[in-house]
């Protein structure tokens, strides 16, 4: 007897049907054909639960899985192992939640009917590691900050000609010691290095100017992050806003210009809501000594003079 199911995959939605006495392996092959994916994970039901497609279960009849009428969510899985990483000595502290000021949840997504889903803003914790968390989540790392910081620091020290004092603005040993600390911000240098380590193009969209900075141009796969002046978030694609972030699509071919354009449209939507900090004249406060200054230039000067690098934006009210 034929059973029907719906598929939600990165390339859109479709319906499939298959004989209920077919083995699970036949369903897997059918999904490969429909989605043009080779490596993927499957989830179904509400709340979503994983469908085990491990080799040991490939002969199991589909009718025993109770999938009739279900919607199966297909998420691409990168088969390549992650780059070598130093393991943290202790578990990462749970990041504090961060809610963007003045932005409602329904304003952080942009419907994309042609692909059957939404481009969404995944807001990162405001914990001085937002850039590492934004990128790390895009490549599937849990609590990635310490791992990525160590990888960046090791890369700098192993490439002394490329990352010298003239490029870093200070002695490489001192720079990397600071970068390993959880309270140090990451920026363009770190994005460029992570692009090389993971062989990915990292497209960073600036909310204020809508400029796209591409780190690692010429690579075949892209991830997208959003820069709002003093904070980084991640941009992802999801097929339903109720789905958990674990089934987000966060990697795309660099040939897929439509994805980058749709991400810019989402950034433009956020720009209209003033979801950015103007770093040329915003008022900041040092969280260590309560010094108050204006703009990025003064913050950099204060950091060089004192070694303090924890800043917060001050809200000025009449």
TrEMBL record:
InterPro entries documented for this protein: OTU1_Ubl, OTU_dom, Papain-like_cys_pep_sf, Znf-C2H2_OTU1-like_C
Protein function: Hydrolase that can remove conjugated ubiquitin from proteins and may therefore play an important regulatory role at the level of protein turnover by preventing degradation.
Organism: Achaetomium macrosporum
Signal peptide annotation: none
Region (Disordered): 78-109
Keyword Metal-binding: yes
Localisation: Cytoplasm
GO cellular component, one term: cytosol
MF (Gene Ontology): cysteine-type deubiquitinase activity; zinc ion binding
Lineage summary: Eukaryota, Fungi, Dikarya, Ascomycota, Pezizomycotina
Protein EC: 3.4.19.12
Protein name stated in the entry: Ubiquitin thioesterase OTU
Catalytic reactions on record: Thiol-dependent hydrolysis of ester, thioester, amide, peptide and isopeptide bonds formed by the C-terminal Gly of ubiquitin (a 76-residue protein attached to proteins as an intracellular targeting signal)
BP-aspect Gene Ontology terms: endoplasmic reticulum unfolded protein response; ERAD pathway; protein deubiquitination
Domain OTU: from-to ranges: 119-238
Alphabetized SUPFAM superfamilies for the sequence: Cysteine proteinases (SSF54001)
Protein keywords: Cytoplasm, Hydrolase, Metal-binding, Protease, Thiol protease, Ubl conjugation pathway, Zinc, Zinc-finger
Matches recorded under Pfam families: OTU (PF02338), OTU1_UBXL (PF21403), zf-C2H2_OTU1_C (PF24560)
KW Hydrolase (keyword) present: yes
